[in-house]
Design goal:
263 residues; globular; 10-stranded mixed β-sheet; binds magnesium ion; 10 helices; alpha/beta; 10 strands; Diguanylate cyclase; binds ligand C2E
Length: 263
């Protein structure tokens, strides 16, 4: 409600706002500043073949180090960016930075795309412009979207189709935690289902096996998130999931530390 009053509104209302709302307003202001000053970084977490341990790609994860607050987690600031229009500029910065980093990599890079970015009528033309600017082949990119985009069936169908026509791969992030329209999901020709880390961490056999079977029947591959132990990796291989991400395989780190990105 407060944000509808615009930026000046905050000043007037500040003293009346509760703690959470003023923290949100503060983060929003700081995010706008950080965007113009390019205070963000992209870190990369490897996606690994669990059988051969070969790195098959990377996921780009945004990092923000605030001058006085220190590291602020994307869990906090992405949510706030999504509640405002900050997500659009932030999403574009991520794509630009990934393209700059891509020059050093011959591996697939996955980018997290906020459902809000699908609302931007210029989304596709912006993406095309960025790829043209950096002369990057779109098939090097994978876009991670969440099940929440399924709510807007028509829009999602047309955007995903256009992205796929460009050659971009599409994955469903945190799969199993949200609402999925299964008919739509199979129509979309998704490339990858990412099993949410909560199911790995609970060793949720039934759910993991169901997702693996769904992937097989829809012709998409499966990747497991949040693998923290060797046992979890073995458990997944046994059930037919052979690609994963997680601290045991590699933590998100700056591009310079991902030596393998160069080969
Ligand atoms: P996500 O896309 O599901 O990313 C996976 C999150 O799990 C990352 O948290 C990653 O650091 C963390 N993670 C990876 N391996 C493990 C593990 O073994 N154990 C545990 N406990 N966690 C693990 P992070 O970087 O804090 O990002 C949180 C969420 O913020 C992401 O979830 C994604 O939804 C969002 N996000 C991050 N970067 C971006 C971005 O550039 N754009 C957008 N729109 N969203 C982003
Ligand atoms: Mg992701
Ligand atoms: Mg995820
Ligand atoms: Mg997750």
């Amino acid at each position: 409600a407060a944000k509808e009053h615009g930026r000046c509104g905050y000043r007037l209302y500040d003293t009346f706002l509760d703690e959470k709302t003023s923290r949100t307003a503060y983060i929003e202001r700081e995010l706008r500043k950080a965007l113009t000053e390019e205070d963000f970084e992209l870190h990369y977490q490897p996606k690994v073949n669990l059988v051969t341990m070969e790195v098959v790609g990377y996921e780009a994860l945004i990092r923000w180090r605030h001058e006085t607050e220190g590291w602020i987690s994307p869990g906090e600031f992405i949510t706030i960016a999504e509640e405002t229009d900050v997500i659009f500029g932030l999403g574009e910065w991520v794509l630009h930075q990934a393209c700059r980093d891509m020059k050093q990599s011959q591996k697939q890079v996955a980018i997290n795309i906020s459902p809000r970015q699908f609302e931007d009528p210029m989304f596709l033309s912006k993406i095309k412009g960025i790829f043209r600017q950096y002369e990057i082949e779109p098939s090097f990119f994978e876009f991670e979207i969440t099940e929440s985009v399924m709510k807007d069936k028509e829009r999602t169908q047309s955007i995903v189709q256009d992205l796929k026509n460009m050659g971009i791969h599409i994955s469903i992030d945190d799969f199993g935690t949200g609402y999925s329209n299964l008919a739509l999901l199979s129509d979309l020709n998704i490339d990858v289902l990412k099993i949410d880390r909560s199911f790995i961490q609970q060793s949720n056999e039934e759910l993991v096996e169901t997702v693996i079977r769904m992937g097989e029947s829809m012709g998409c591959s499966i990747i497991a998130e949040g693998i923290e132990t060797r046992e979890q990796a073995m458990w997944l291989i046994k059930r037919g999931c052979s690609v994963g991400q997680g601290y045991w395989l590699g933590k998100p780190s700056p591009i310079a530390k991902n030596q393998t990105m160069n080969c």
